[in-house]
Amino acid sequence: MAKILVVAPHPDDEALGAGGVIHRAIQAGNDVRVILMTAGDGFVQDAERYYLSLHVTPEEYLHLGYERQLESQRAMAQLGLSPDHVACLGFPDGGLDHLLLHYGDSLPFESQTTHQASVPYIHLPSYHTPYTGYHLLNLLIHELKTFQPEWVVSPILVDQHPDHWATSAFAALALLQCQAANLPWAQSAQQWGYLIHWTGWPLPLGYHPELSMEMPQALKTHPFITWYAQDDYAEQEIQTKRQALLSYDSQVELIKPFLQAFARRNEILGKVLPLPWGPRVVLPRPKSVALPKLIHKDFGLIGSTWWFDGTQMHALLDLNGRREWTIRLASFIIGSDLQFFGAEIKGDVTREEIQRIDTERGVELVCSPQNNAILGMALMGIVIYDEENKMIARTGFWPWQSLR
Questions:
Q1: Whole-angstrom Cα distance, residue 265 to residue 115?
Q2: How far apart are CA 108 and CA 119, in angstroms?
Q3: Cys bridge to 400: 20, 258, 378, 383, which one at CB 3.0-4.6 A?
Q4: How high is the pLDDT of residue 271?
Q5: What pLDDT shows up at residue 101?
Q6: Within its chain, how far is the Cα of 50 from the centroid?
Q7: Are 35 and 5 in contact (CB under 8 A)?
Q8: Residue 93 CA from chain centroid, whole number
Q9: What is the Cα gyration radius of the chain?
């Protein structure tokens, strides 16, 4: 009997990305558990529609969070999963990327919608846990140690939604920490990723059970992601997933065509390959097709080249940067203790731990890792913000494997 842990940023992502995997695994007698990182209490447009108001109160956002947790339980019941196998951590919807990028902060993050700085849901074991990256990661590590999964299924790191790529990174960190602790079950455990948000995907919208999901062309040939399709879902399996998706009542009226577009003949999971530490590694910029890019801003994954010269880490960003932009680098060194290095640079300001060099080829960042050495595994990425503090580009948070 296999153990599969599905990690979702918000209630409905677990069914969108892995509903078929969950249903088939349960039908085969496997053990499945779902972890919701947030209660979905930060979806502003949905809350405005749900309460028919442009001035939704913090109390109403909390009420929506309770409702969305129940919706997840009902949806998973459609797939055969009992409510006691669905757990919510209750962290801030719309704040997971901040918790990742500012992991070292001890001051809790405050949700912009609920105005809470700790888990507000009184029925959850995590009730009153402060909104910090440290606390979130440790809750996730506890879930892994308790369940001991063989598969960890989470969003893929190239997903464009900030909560999604942050969830991918937190899931990777939790599993890597368990592996670094030499826990027997963790040595063979694998992380798989599902894609929810990408420019112009999936198309066409709506319910098309005769169609198969096709990865966006820009991601199909990515050199460090291998895609696997679980094909040939029977008509009844597709209908079961559709009914699960329609169980998210608070979402249906707003995004029903999007929800139903994921009920098709297959599901696709991606496996991210660790990058080799040391030599130059080129991560290409995925090419977005023009029309969807005009319709929806894609927070583009920029191209980047990374290398380590023995003492310093270099990252060359395929970006004609403006001096007003803020560039934030965050790296995690996985070992017996998790080491976090986070720094940002804006304009002509130089910091001791990170430097910015503008060249004809792009923007180069140079930083000195802690202890001037990277041993074992690391997780590292860069995010760029404009002068209004809006995210405009990122590299993705990639795992790095030491060559030593």
A1: 41
A2: 11
A3: 378
A4: 97
A5: 97
A6: 26
A7: yes
A8: 12
A9: 21
**Which residue bears the tokens 């960003």?**
317
Q: Looking at residue 174, what DSSP letter applies? A: H
Cβ neighbours of residue 229 under 8 Å, at least 6 residues apart? 212, 213, 266, 267, 268
- Pairing verdict, β 313-317 and 3-8: unpaired
Alpha-carbon span 374 to 100, nearest angstrom: 20
Mean pLDDT computed over 136-156: 98
List of residues 6+ apart from 186 with CB closer than 8 A = 144, 148, 175, 178, 179
Helix (H) or strand (E) holding 345, with range, is strand 339-346
For 401, the token pair is: 């494997």
> What residue type is 118 in one-letter code?
S
CA–CA dist 89, 75 (Å, integer): 18
pLDDT at 298 > cutoff 60? no
Q: What is the spatial distance between Cα 73 and Cα 247, in angstroms, rounded to a whole number?
A: 9
C-alpha 269/C-alpha 278 separation (Å) is 28
Predicted TM-score of the model (pTM): 0.95
Residue matched to tokens 């990305």: 17
Amino acid at position 189, single letter: A
Q: Would you say the C-alpha torsion 280, 281, 285, 287 has a positive or negative sign?
A: positive
> How many other β-carbons are positioned within 10 Å of the β-carbon of residue 303?
16
- From first CA to last CA, the distance across the chain in angstroms is 36
Q: CA-CA distance, 321 to 44, in Å (whole number)?
A: 31
Q: 15: buried, middle or exposed (CB in 10 Å: 19+, 13-18, 0-12)?
A: buried
193-204: average pLDDT: 94
Closest CA to 149 of 209, 113, 120, 192: 192
pLDDT band at 68 (very low <50, low <70, confident <90, very high): very high
Please name every residue paired with 3 in a beta bridge, in sequence order, or none if there are none. Answer: 31
Contact of 28 with 58, CB cutoff 8 Å: no
* Beta bridge mates, 283: 304
Per-residue pLDDT, 401: 85
**Tokens at residue 184, please?**
């027997």
Q: Please name which of 379, 370, 402, 371 lies closest in space to residue 174, comparing C-alpha atoms.
A: 379
Report the alpha-carbon distance of residue 286 to residue 95 in Å, rounded.
Answer: 26
Q: What is the mean pLDDT of residues 88-98?
A: 98
Cα angle at 101 between 97 and 103, to 5 degrees? 110
The answer for 90, left when phi > 0, alpha when psi is -120 to 50, beta otherwise, is left
Q: In angstroms, what CA-CA distances link 156 with 13, 131, 162?
A: 12, 23, 12
Cα separation of 93 and 205, whole Å? 25
